[in-house]
Amino acid sequence: MEKPKRSNKLAIILAFLVIFGLANKQCYCDVVQFIFGDSLSDVGNNNYLTKSLARAATPWYGIDFDNGMPNGRFCNGRTVADIVGDKMGLPRPPAFLDPSLDENVIFQNGVNFASGGGGILNETSSLFIQRFSLYKQIELFKGIQEFMRMKIGTEKANQFFTEAYYVVAMGSNDFINNYLLPVYADSWTYNGDTFTQYLISTLEDQLKLMHSLGARKLTFFGLGPMGCIPLQRWLTSSGSCQQSTNKLAKTFNQQAMNLMKDLSSSLPNATFRFGDAYDAFQDLINRPTVYGFNNSHAPCCTLGKIRPTLTCTPLSTLCKDRSQYVFWDEYHPTDKANELIANEIVKKLGLSNSTTNGTTNS
C-alpha cells in the first residue's frame, strides 16, 4: 500500500522540477521592442525634461489619443512606431522616464528612449537645451540592461534583449536643427555630401555598439521629404518644397540603406533592415486628395495667421477636420498621415503579426 503513495509523491516532485527547475534555465519572454528616436517617436521623455524647449506637454497634443490629453507625442494621435508595433502585435513601450517603469513593465513592454530634438550627433538641437541624443539613448539602454540583469539574472536578461526588436528613427534633426542652421558649426564645417558621410559614419559606430549590446533584429526608419514640412515651405518665397533639403534626405536614405545591408552581412546573426516610406510620403504630399486629404502644405494647429509657431499651444486654433490635414504642426505629420507612412513600411518589410508570436521559448 505504500508504493502507490511514493509513486504519487515522486510524480508531483518531478512535475515541480520540470515546471520550476527548467524555468530557471529558460526564458519564457514576452517579445518586446526598444525604440530609439526623436520627436517623431517620443512618447513622453521630453515632458520629464523640464528645461527642454522641445516638449509636447500642452494641448492640443494628444487630442485624438486615448483620453485626449497631452502624452508626450508630438502629434494629435499615434506615432509611426506606435502603428508599426501594433501591426506586428508588439506592446507599446513606455517612455524611459515614465515613473511607472520597473522590471515587470520592461519585461512585458520594452522601453522607448526617443527624445524630441534628438539626433545622431551629440551637438544636434543644442538650442533645445535638454534632449537625448542617440549616444545618450544607447547609454540609457545600457543602464536598463544592467538593471534587468540584476533583477532577473544575466542569462535570462541577455536572452530577453537578444530576442527583442529594435527601432531606430533618427536623422531629420541633424539636418533641420543642425546642418541647415548657420548657428551650428557643422553648417559651415561641412558641405551636404561630407555632412551626410559624417552622419552615416557616426550611425555605423552607434549601430555596431547596439549590436554588441545584443540588438539582432533592428529596423532603421528612413527620412521623409524634409523639404516639404510646413516650416521648410514657409521659408521659401513660393511656399513650395525645398528640393535641396529633400535631396539631402534622399542621399542620406540611400547611404543608410546600404549601411543596413552591410551590417546585416558583416555582423553575426544581425538582421538590420531599412524602413523606407519616402516615395509614398512624397506622393501623399503631391496628391493629397487621392488619399482622402485636402491640405498637405500647412499645419492643422496654428496660432491664427501667425507663422511659424514652432509648437502647438493652448492658444492655437485647430483646423476643422484633422483627418484632412497631412501635417499636425510645423514639423510633424498627423495621426492619419502617420498611418499611411506606417502601412508603407509594414508593406515593404513584410511585417505583421506573423513576424512574432508574442513570446519566445529558447
Walkthrough of the structure:
With 362 residues, the protein is an alpha/beta fold. Helix content is 41%, strand content 11%. Helix 4 (134-152) packs across helix 5, helix 8 runs parallel beside helix 10 and helix 11 packs antiparallel against helix 12. The relative contact order is 0.14. This is GDSL esterase/lipase. Residues 1-23 form the signal peptide. It holds the Pfam family Lipase_GDSL.
Features:
362 residues, alpha/beta, 11 strands, 11% strand
State Rg: 23 Å
Structural class: alpha/beta
Strand content: 5-15%
Averaged pLDDT, please?
91
The main β sheet shows up as:
5 strands, parallel
Organism: Rhynchospora pubera
Protein name: GDSL esterase/lipase
Family: Belongs to the 'GDSL' lipolytic enzyme family.
Pfam families: Lipase_GDSL
